[in-house]
Design brief:
By secondary structure, this protein is an all-alpha fold. It is built from 6 helices and 2 strands, in the order ααααααββ. Among the domains are: 36 residues; 46 residues.
Amino acid sequence: MRYAFIERHRAVWPIARQCQVLKVSASGYRQHRARQTGGTGPLQPGRRIGDVALLVHLKAIFNEMKGAYGWPRIWRELSTRGIHTGKERVRKLMKVHGLRARGKRKFKATTNSSHGLPVSPNLLERRFAVEAPNRVWLATSPMCGHRKDGSISRSSSTC
């Protein structure tokens, strides 16, 4: 009601003086006026995006990243896309709607050394210097890689 009075009498009295007499803040009046004359787009600077619209963006990023992003990374991604909102708001919306990041997979050892199967004997016994050619043959494991200079890089203890 007071803001409407100020709006009607803008040409008659200064806005700051009217706000002082009516005991309202000038910044409150300016915010009211901006809300009245502003556009209706949800992503305008300075306008708060609704929870439903924010949830749409959250789910889009969550699905785009295949569930790997938690609330901190989604919040950063929203900021880079120009949607500025609070961290806690993102965290709470994700929690309420059950959006949780996938956890890292637990390490599973695939080597079973305690078995009763026959094991090939180690004929070389780490003696790599040989007396004559074609006495010792060497094969690389898929766990080893070959460098450009022809040497073998050892990336595992199985090489």
